[in-house]
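Worked Example 4.2. Consider the chain below.
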Amino acid sequence: MSFKQVVRFTNDAAALEKILRLSQSLSQILAAYATTAEDAKTWLLLRRQFALGRRYFRFFKFLDAFPKAFDSFHTTVGVMVVLEVGKWSCLGAYLFLESLTILDTMGVWPSPWAEGVLVEGNKFWFYSLVCSIFLGGLQLYAEGGEVKGGSTEKGTGKSQGVQAQKEKLGGIRRRMVVDIFDLFLPGFVTGWLVTTQAFVGFASAVSTILSSKDIWDRLQK
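Applying the procedure from the previous section yields the following structure tokens:
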């Protein structure tokens, strides 16, 4: 890992959002284990500021999610259509509802309905993650769950095919792990999953690190 690679990563918008997310997660963990109320207040303030910074990057992300849901009708078949459409449409609904509350979060225009809208939005995020986890499971099942071929295969073309399949399966498994950890975030907000703020921060940190690998790999190409 070179300094140039690090600079390229930190100057990418998606990577910067992940850095802020990791900072938000660590602040939440530190707030949960703070020894004094004053320390906890400081860490929670940092958490809110990091969270607000991330909101700016995601403000128009719902415009990307809904077209993906529509395209899924033409690119997938069977049960996968339902799961993929559900994944992207619910994610789009979550991002849209979250964007509606940006002025309340900034403190510019406090709204009595903002908290309720965020809770409803997190419900949609929960649905999206559940669909994504089941979709990943079906994709692994369709691919056989393991890399076919191996060292007995000869030829550059076959070796590249095996490597591509290995990377694809690894990406699906990693995505499923990320989604499972992320599930605790909306689950905690909605009250559907009983857990602690410290564990939610830990789960968010793990999912952030794992999902950052895709961004890192993309920037190195």
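DSSP finds ten helices and no strands in the chain. The mean pLDDT is 92. Compare this with Example 4.1 before moving on.
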